[in-house]
Design a protein that fits this description.
This protein starts with a strand and ends with a helix. It has a single domain, classed as Rossmann fold. Strands 2-1-3-4-5 form a five-stranded parallel beta sheet, sandwiched between helices. Helices cover 52% and strands 19% of the residues. By secondary structure, it is α/β, with parallel strands linked by helices. 34% of the residues are buried. The protein has five helices and five strands; from the N terminus they run βαβαβαβαβα.
């Protein structure tokens, strides 16, 4: 079973993201800040990380992304934010994010997008793993 880490400092949003990811039939672990997320990433193997961009500092979501990619280049990361800018989205993608989603407000459209993106990210990870084994 795939293991997913959901990171957000707002408990309501984190709970909604966890609910959306669990709805895809995966094991989901929560972190309520970037530092906790980075510690969990160092201690466990995650197939996918879903992280808010702006938590206790402006770039903490990107720090979570970097930590996930340093631990395992195949870990897929979806960055979510309500404070997006083109420059930050470019940075996230350059650092290896699978996707960068802007949410206008907590709502069903963001959650449905997560439900759609989770299987896509995990399928991409599996394809990359197979590709690496064949080399």
């Amino acid at each position: 079973m795939a293991k997913i880490l959901v990171v957000d400092d707002e408990s309501d949003l984190r709970g909604q993201l966890k609910w959306a990811a669990e709805g895809t039939g995966r094991e989901v672990i929560e972190a309520d800040n970037g530092k906790q997320a980075i510690k969990l990433i160092q201690e466990h193997n995650f197939d996918l990380v879903i992280t808010d961009l702006k938590m206790e500092t402006e770039s903490i979501g990107l720090d979570v992304l970097k930590a996930a990619k340093e631990k395992d280049i195949l870990t897929q990361v979806i960055v979510i934010t309500a404070y997006g800018t083109p420059a930050i989205s470019v940075d996230a993608m350059r650092l290896g994010a699978f996707d960068y989603l802007e949410r206008s407000a907590p709502g069903t459209e963001s959650l449905e997008m997560i439900r759609l993106k989770v299987p896509l990210a995990l399928d991409y990870r599996n394809a990359k793993q197979k590709e690496m084994r064949m080399k």
